[in-house]
Amino acid sequence: MNILVLSAARENGKTQALTMEAVNSIKLHLPGVTVKSLYLSEMQLPLCDGCGACLSSSEANCPHYAAVSLITDAIFWADGILFASPVYAGMISSSMKNLLEHLFFMTHRPMLHGYHIFTLCVGASTGARETAKYLKGIFGSYGADTVTCASIADKGIGSEIMPKTMERVNASAQDFADIVSMGPKHPSMRQLRNYNKLRADIQIDNSDSYDSLWWEEEKMNDYPWVPGLPCARPALIYGQFVYSRHKIAIRLSNAFLRMEKQKRFKTAEKSQTAGGTPRRRKGKR
């Protein structure tokens, strides 16, 4: 069993101390587990400049691929991942946000399906709960099986950590360890809907993209759930139904848009033939 820790904690801060507490609790409840820790402050990951290379083509074409690949390789090695971040200005730290932006291509390619995520958000007062909710939504869109959240608002003075905070972190770490020990879970209805809608979108609207090539190479085009992950037969049937229905909806929408485009073109052509220009409706600008 492999656990990866991706931490945006500063040295000797509360987030680092609570992350170590969580790791010790995980080791206690998962005998023989291998834990690998990566600290974003030490990796100095370059800022994502939003060039879109990872989306329009392979993530290997990212100008910062050499640095990003160290993290993605570690992610693929792990069975579960602990993301730890302090709460700054009501949100995750800039280094953690930068990492999530570098991993955004995973919303198009289901690479985190089957993974269990543990998010540890530590603030001094407010914002920890909202930050944990934000991360849960992000990793849910990335396809993670489960997201265990620990939102901590610790008001201890200096580096002092309150006993109740330690108890909460240990309880969340134990829950995470128990979930990881059970392996990949069967998909929820929401996961099946999102997965098969994405499968239909990729095949119809992005058939010439790198995403389509990736899905084909991974042999996911013909399956209503990720090959190799558990899924009951009724759920597979439901996923295929969602996929077929969404394909029809996309084609109808595309046909309607083409008709509207042709209609506007004919209206403009008729106005030019008559020697005038189409009148614009008066309204507020």
Topology:
Elements: E1 2-7, H1 14-29, E2 34-39, H2 40-43, H3 53-56, H4 65-77, E3 80-88, E4 91-92, H5 94-102, E5 116-123, H6 128-141, E6 146-153, H7 163-181, H8 189-204, H9 210-217, H10 233-273
Parallel strand pairs: 1-2, 1-3, 3-5, 5-6
Antiparallel strand pairs: 3-4
Structural write-up:
The structure is a single chain. This protein has 285 residues and is an alpha/beta fold. The protein has two domains: 2-181, Rossmann fold; 189-273, no CATH class. The chain is 51% helix and 14% strand. The protein has helices at 14-29, 40-43, 53-56, 65-77, 94-102, 128-141, 163-181, 189-204, 210-217, 233-273, and strands spanning 2-7, 34-39, 80-88, 91-92, 116-123, 146-153. Strands 1, 2, 3, 4, 5 and 6 form a six-stranded mixed beta sheet that branches. Strand 1, helix 1 (14-29) and strand 2 (34-39) form a beta-alpha-beta unit. The mean pLDDT is 88.
What is the residue-averaged pLDDT?
A: 88
Q: How far apart are the first and last residues' alpha carbons, in Å? A: 61 Å
Helicity, as a percent range: 40-55%
Which regions contain 5 or more consecutive residues with pLDDT less than 50?
Answer: none
CATH architecture of the largest domain: 3-Layer(aba) Sandwich
Helices, by number, come to 10
Oligomeric composition of the shown chains: single chain
Structural class determined from secondary elements: alpha/beta
* Biggest sheet descriptor: 6 strands, mixed
The succession of helices and strands, N to C, reads: EHEHHHEEHEHEHHHH
CATH topology of the largest domain: Rossmann fold
Categorize the overall geometry: globular
How many separate domains? 2
Strand % is 5-15%
Provide the CATH top-level class of the largest domain: Alpha Beta
